[in-house]
C-alpha cells in the first residue's frame, strides 16, 4: 500500500507541475488536472490511514501523565475509541458516497462517488489495521510527559 501511495504522490506532483505550466503557456491547456489532483489527494489520505495506523504512526497528544505500566492500556483504549470512530466514518461515508453516485464531475464526466468512495474504504481498512497491529508498538509511545521517542516499531 505504501508503494502505491508513493506512485500516487508522484502522479499528483507531475499533475500540479502541469497546472503550473498551464498557467504560463497559453496554448497548453489541461483543464482536468485540478480535479484529478483533488481526487488523488482524497484517495491518498484515506488509503494512507491504514498504513499509518498499522505502524503506530499516528500523532500522540498526552493530556494525562500516566505511569509507564499504563501505556499498554492507554493504547488499547485509544485503539477501541479509534475503531469506533472509524466505524461511524465508514458507515456515514458509505451513505454519502452512495447518495452521490448519480452526480457527475463536470470536467471528467465520472460519478462523484469516486471522490467519496475512499472515505468508507479507508475507514474500514483502518479498523482492520487497528485490529491487527501489534501491541509491541506501544514501546514506541511516550510513557510520560516530555518523553519523545522517535523510533517506530518494525
Would you give an account of this structure?
By secondary structure, the protein is mainly alpha-helical. The protein has five helices and no strands. The longest helix is centred in the middle third of the chain and has 29 residues, at 71-99. The two termini are 16 Å apart.
Keywords:
154 residues, mainly alpha, disordered C terminus
Task: Count the beta strands.
Answer: 0
Head-to-tail CA distance between termini: 16 Å
Tell me the structural class: mainly alpha
Radius of gyration: 20 Å
**Percentage of residues in DSSP E strands:** under 5%
Order of helices and strands: HHHHH
Which term fits the overall shape? elongated
Helix content class: 55-70%
Helix count from the secondary structure assignment: 5
Instruction: Enumerate the spans where pLDDT stays under 50 for 5 or more consecutive residues.
Output: 143-147, 150-154
Amino acid at each position: 500500500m505504501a508503494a502505491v501511495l508513493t506512485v500516487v504522490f508522484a502522479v499528483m506532483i507531475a499533475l500540479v507541475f502541469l497546472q503550473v505550466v498551464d498557467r504560463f503557456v497559453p496554448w497548453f491547456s489541461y483543464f482536468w488536472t485540478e480535479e484529478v489532483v483533488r481526487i488523488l489527494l482524497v484517495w491518498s489520505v484515506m488509503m494512507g490511514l491504514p498504513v499509518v495506523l498499522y505502524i503506530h504512526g499516528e500523532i500522540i497528544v498526552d493530556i494525562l501523565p500516566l505511569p509507564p505500566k499504563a501505556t499498554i492500556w492507554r493504547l488499547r483504549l485509544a485503539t477501541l475509541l479509534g475503531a469506533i470512530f472509524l466505524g461511524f466514518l465508514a458507515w456515514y461515508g458509505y451513505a454519502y458516497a452512495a447518495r452521490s453516485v448519480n452526480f457527475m464531475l463536470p470536467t471528467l464526466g465520472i460519478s462523484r462517488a469516486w471522490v467519496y468512495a475512499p472515505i468508507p474504504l479507508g475507514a474500514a481498512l483502518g479498523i482492520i489495521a487497528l485490529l491487527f497491529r501489534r501491541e509491541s508498538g506501544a514501546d514506541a509511545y511516550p510513557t510520560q510527559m516530555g518523553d519523545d521517542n522517535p523510533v517506530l516499531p518494525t
